[in-house]
Amino acid sequence: MKEKITIAKQSGKAFKLKKGDILTVIDPKGQQVSDMVLFNSADTKEKVSSGKTLDFEESILITTSNYLWSNRSNKMVEIIKDTNGRNDFLLAPCSKETFEVMYNHKGYHPSCLENLYKNLQPFGIDFDDIPNAFNIFMNVQFDLEGKISVLPPTSVAGDLIQFEACMDLIVCLTACSAEDSNGGSFKPIEYFIETVN
Amino acid sequence: MKEKITIAKQSGKAFKLKKGDILTVIDPKGQQVSDMVLFNSADTKEKVSSGKTLDFEESILITTSNYLWSNRSNKMVEIIKDTNGRNDFLLAPCSKETFEVMYNHKGYHPSCLENLYKNLQPFGIDFDDIPNAFNIFMNVQFDLEGKISVLPPTSVAGDLIQFEACMDLIVCLTACSAEDSNGGSFKPIEYFIETVN
User: Which bin fits B61, alpha (ψ -120 to 50), beta or left (φ > 0)?
Assistant: First the structure.
């Protein structure tokens, strides 16, 4: 299977990925962010852990040859290709409160957290069990005092990142809903899966 | 109540903190780290979130006047005093795998994750539900490329950090078990609670 699937702007998709399969996530138009969370499909209490990943990879920025690790200290995926190179685990998925507290937005706003939850709910995953997401193509800058700023992504049309699954997974991806993380525009994300069996 | 309680080296303690109470955490000998996790005592699915805290506080380093936020975007505690000033959420609590993978240690080793779990289990909190901890007095250095290194804490004997509770909480604190985070020694941590009612 190598069918390319589009995640429409401000939405998300969840799907299974078998051990050994390769997932490619593409920024088709440039300057878009995708939040990704991972769960062990055999036991969804095991999930991607920002803290364990930073521990074992000894880096805030995570790219080619790094692994994403679980809360039980198991490797979940290996990053085997990354044409942009700026991804991290620092900030939480945008939520309605992100827009209320940080952007003074009134009323409904789509968010990555809502899109993760809506797509993961059919897999039996609760809202409160959604972990810190891996922020693909997100351009989070920090200085040596730790001050954080979010700049438009440096990704250009066609930039991609490839993950090889180290265990059977449930994956959820979003096309980010936040104005600030994608330079004021809303764009889709694409992905495809290459299966080994 | 202002009884000072000692957390013995390589151990932990969990306790309740009421809204408005002030918790003071002390490094009595200097160069020791304490991992702290927080849960809403009325609903332990709500817990401290590294991602939400970095979002709303816009900083990797968290100190006086910063809040620690929950996964539901609520304020859990405010830091009202911090005489050392180096605390973060980057690395996960040390676990047996930390010592196996990173230090090539064979056999049993005490760890913050074990001590968090042992002390939180009586409150009905599962191993997999322990979030990234707030690393008090931990000296995690990072460069602009994101490379992480753990240096001995800069805390000296008597350094302290004070938290005012914004909701009723279950708190768990450790006296860190890892050689590398406390300069090769194992030391206690102290705390006391000032109640408003």
Answer: beta
Domain extents for chain A?
5-194
Q: In this complex, do B148 and A58 lie within 8 Å of one another by their Cβ atoms?
A: yes
Q: Within a 10 A sphere around the Cβ of A149, how many other Cβ atoms?
A: 11
**Which of B43, B50, B105 has the highest number of chain A CBs within 10 A, making it the mutation to test binding with A?**
B50
The closest CB to that of A148, out of B59, B72, B143, belongs to B59
Instruction: Give the separation between CA A64 and CA A164, rounded to whole angstroms.
Output: 11
DSSP for residue B181: G
Over the stretch B78-101, which tens digit does the pLDDT of each residue have? 999 999 999 999 999 999 998 888
Mean pLDDT score across all residues of chain A: 94
Q: Taking 60 as the threshold, does the pLDDT of residue A6 lie above it?
A: yes
Residues β-bridged to residue A90: none
**Site of tokens 């992504």:** A153
Residue B135 three-state SS: strand
pLDDT single digits (tens) A88-130: 999 999 999 988 888 888 889 999 999 999 999 999 999 999 9
Summarised one tens digit per residue, pLDDT across range B35-67 is 999 999 999 999 999 999 999 999 999 999 999
Helix (H, G, I), strand (E, B) or coil at A112: helix
Burial B153-185 (b: 16+ CB within 10 A, else e): bebeeebbbbbbbbbebbbbbbbbbbebbbeee
Give the residue from chain B lying closest to A103, CA to CA.
B56
